[in-house]
Amino acid sequence: MSAATTIAPGLNPMQQQHMRALARANEVRLARAALKREIAAGSRSALEVVRDVPWEAESMAVGELLAAQRRWGKARSRKLISSAGLKETKEVGDLTERQRRVLAGALEAKAAT
């Protein structure tokens, strides 16, 4: 279902734009929740998301992504993020290639132990 089909007719252009933005935000929220469930279940890894950056993870904070892993809380996520020289509020889509490699390497090292 597209955002255009859910918007009520008779709205002014500003209201239509607002409704489309709300529909898109809801779509992203639902996709991100599904991604977090996949990570928690182990069917997808945070390392894979860091390397591939699917559209639903582009605006997700690195701390939020790492905390979605099973047995990972905020403290463990913060520790890994700070060891990689990042901030936990940095968005996954905004990571530079170097930052992505450093974070992926830290995740691989953590998985090996």
Descriptive report:
There is one protein chain. With 113 residues, the protein is mainly alpha-helical. It has one domain: Helicase, Ruva Protein, domain 3 (Orthogonal Bundle). Helices cover 64% and strands 0% of the residues. The chain is built from 6 helices and no strands. α3 packs antiparallel against α6. The longest helix has 29 residues. It is elongated, with a radius of gyration of 17 Å. 19% of the residues are buried.
Write a short abstract of this structure.
The chain has 113 residues and is mainly α. The protein is 64% helix and 0% strand.
Sum up the structure in keywords.
single chain, 113 residues, mainly alpha, Helicase, Ruva Protein, domain 3, 6 helices, 0% strand, elongated
Nearest-integer average pLDDT: 91
CATH architecture designation: Orthogonal Bundle
Number of strands: 0
Tell me the β content. under 5%
How do the helices and strands follow one another from N- to C-terminus? HHHHHH
> What percent of the residues sit in helical stretches (DSSP H or I)?
55-70%
Number of DSSP helical runs? 6
N-to-C CA distance: 44 Å
**What is the overall shape?**
elongated
Report the uncertain regions: none
CATH topology, by name, is Helicase, Ruva Protein, domain 3
Structural class: mainly alpha
Question: Over all CA atoms, what is the radius of gyration?
Answer: 17 Å
Please report the first level of CATH classification, the CATH class.
Answer: Mainly Alpha
How many strands, what sense, and barrel or not for the largest sheet? none
Number of domains: 1
